[in-house]
């Protein structure tokens, strides 16, 4: 049993139409630090998913017709309850996901910020009047909720990825059916409990835990589900896009990344070290906007490598998520740890040099130490593939053109970072980088006020900001004649 102030936040049943739904079949939620069972969660399938779609569909009419100010007030109450229970939510998150408590607490606050932001934006869904082609007509455009939304969320940010989707959906007047990752369903269920306490009507939020294939297939084949919002790998995302094509659903797809972090010779090296430490190693490298490749100008390459190794040694402590001294926890599963190690070992075989780390930790099968590799080239596996782990591969470049070419040599385009003190270069590089998010002399860019999303095979649509609400709305043009 987790040491929670409010034990009722640890839910193991699914949440459908305002009721908690159990099942004989269950999913074991394991703590990646020690592989102990945190909880056994209901394993539902297609039938219960259809019930959740029914609930969301039935709740839609009254929810979308509720005055925006009232929806805003309910979202605001939910936000307040999340913050009031921040510590318990962080304890649940750490137990199922493994990230250290400091990061878990930060995620709860970050996730809550999306509920707060969209509570405010609910009152700002504006339309337009347009000059008509003749004086007997009037043209008006209004925005209306798209309808029932399917939300499929990943395990790396099980709290924030859910609020980033549910927040704008509810603000727009949509209802939702959510499928959290099987590795980390407890955070989603705790959020549902708090949403229930906030007074959000039954059927507006539904959380279905269980068989991913059965649940996903039913959600995406349903004509009553009008939109999918998904965060996950590009590979899975492509499959979901294909399934959505049968019913032409609206989609927000936040997919994989391969973020370059470019350090130019005029950069403030200490600031760049701080930036790469924050961008690369938070959540043990398990974020889609994590630095994947560190591109360093040849004139400062060795100095930067030495500084980075020193910083990693001094600042990072690998340990259990509930150890307050730890800065980095385990990876989500042993298979994830093995995948990271394969990328590292294959790259070493191709000529990469280990400056730090480079082997699985003795702490446990899910632990991989912060690793720094030098002599890396852009054709090595650690540069070509998304490394969902704490591995920093350093690639040398000689000039601006080469840095841009290396950075853009990927089929994805989510986030990129670069450090320079040349204002002309700031504009040139920022405009040339083929990425949806660019951090300039900054390693952490995510916040609720800015649009989050990528280009190319990193997906489509934006989350957060005023633009994030548009993905949950349809524009209706009304032409009035006989005036």
Number of strands: 22
Radius of gyration, in angstroms, nearest whole number: 23 Å
Mean pLDDT rating: 97
Strand content: 15-25%
Strand order of the largest sheet: 14-15-16-13-12-18-19
Q: What would CATH call the class of the largest domain?
A: Alpha Beta
In CATH, the architecture of the largest domain is: 3-Layer(aba) Sandwich
Number of separate helices: 15
Query: How many separate domains make up the residues?
Result: 2
- End-to-end Cα distance: 68 Å
Major β-sheet annotation: 7 strands, mixed
Brief summary:
This protein has 483 residues and is an alpha/beta fold. It is built from 15 helices and 22 strands.
Overview of this structure, please?
The protein is built from 15 helices and 22 strands. It has helices at 46-65, 68-84, 86-97, 101-121, 160-172, 186-198, 212-221, 234-244, 269-281, 301-315, 334-349, 381-384, 400-408, 423-432, 467-470, and strands at residues 14-16, 19-21, 26-30, 37-42, 128-130, 138-145, 148-152, 175-179, 205-207, 225-231, 250-254, 259-263, 291-297, 353-356, 371-376, 391-397, 412-413, 415-419, 437-440, 455-456, 459-460, 473-480. Helix 9 packs across helix 10. With 483 residues, it is an alpha/beta fold. Strand 3 (26-30) and strand 4 form a beta hairpin. A seven-stranded mixed sheet has the order 14-15-16-13-12-18-19, sandwiched between helices. The chain has a six-stranded mixed sheet with strand order 9-8-7-10-11-21, with helices on both faces.
């Amino acid at each position: 049993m987790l040491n929670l102030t409010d034990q009722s936040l640890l839910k193991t049943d699914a949440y459908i139409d305002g009721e908690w739904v159990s099942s004989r079949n269950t999913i074991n939620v394991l703590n990646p630090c020690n592989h102990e069972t945190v909880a056994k969660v209901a394993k539902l399938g297609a039938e219960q998913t259809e019930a959740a779609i029914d609930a969301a569909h039935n709740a839609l009419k009254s929810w979308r017709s509720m005055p925006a100010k009232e929806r805003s007030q309910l979202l605001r109450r939910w936000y307040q309850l999340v913050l009031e229970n921040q510590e318990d939510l962080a304890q649940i998150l750490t137990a199922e996901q493994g990230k250290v408590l400091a990061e878990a607490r930060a995620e709860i606050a970050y996730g809550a910020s999306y509920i707060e932001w969209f509570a405010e934006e609910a009152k700002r869904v504006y339309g337009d009047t347009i000059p008509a082609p003749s004086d007997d007509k009037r043209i008006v455009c209004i925005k209306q909720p798209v309808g029932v939304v399917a939300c499929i969320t990943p395990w790396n940010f099980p709290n924030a990825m859910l609020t980033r989707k549910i927040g704008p959906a509810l603000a727009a007047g949509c209802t939702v059916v959510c499928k959290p990752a099987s590795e980390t369903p407890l955070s989603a269920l705790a959020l549902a409990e708090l949403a229930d306490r906030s007074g959000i009507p039954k059927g507006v939020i539904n959380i279905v835990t269980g068989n991913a294939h059965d649940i996903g297939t039913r959600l995406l084949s349903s004509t009553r589900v009008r939109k999918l919002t998904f965060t996950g790998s590009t590979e899975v995302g492509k499959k979901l896009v294909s399934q959505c094509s049968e019913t032409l659903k609206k989609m927000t797809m936040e997919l994989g990344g391969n973020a370059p972090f470019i350090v130019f010779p005029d950069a403030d090296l200490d600031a760049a070290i701080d930036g790469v430490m924050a961008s690369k190693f938070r959540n043990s490298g398990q974020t889609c906007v994590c630095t994947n490749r560190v591109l360093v100008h040849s004139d400062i390459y060795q100095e930067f490598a030495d500084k980075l190794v020193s910083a990693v040694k001094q600042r990072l402590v690998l340990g259990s998520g509930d150890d307050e001294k730890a800065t980095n926890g385990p990876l989500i599963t042993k298979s994830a740890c093995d995948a990271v190690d394969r990328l590292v070992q294959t790259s070493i075989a191709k000529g990469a040099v280990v400056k730090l780390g480079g082997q699985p930790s003795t702490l446990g099968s899910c632990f991989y130490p912060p690793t720094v590799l030098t002599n890396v080239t852009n054709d090595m596996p650690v540069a070509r593939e998304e490394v969902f782990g704490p591995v920093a591969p350093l690639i040398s470049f000689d000039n601006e053109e080469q840095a841009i070419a290396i950075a853009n040599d990927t089929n994805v385009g989510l986030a990129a970072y670069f450090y320079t003190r040349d204002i002309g270069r700031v504009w040139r590089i920022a405009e040339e980088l083929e990425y949806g998010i660019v951090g300039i002399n900054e390693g952490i860019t995510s916040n609720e006020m800015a649009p989050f999303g990528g280009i190319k095979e990193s997906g489509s649509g934006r989350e957060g900001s005023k633009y994030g609400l548009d993905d949950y709305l349809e524009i209706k043009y009304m032409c009035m004649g006989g005036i």
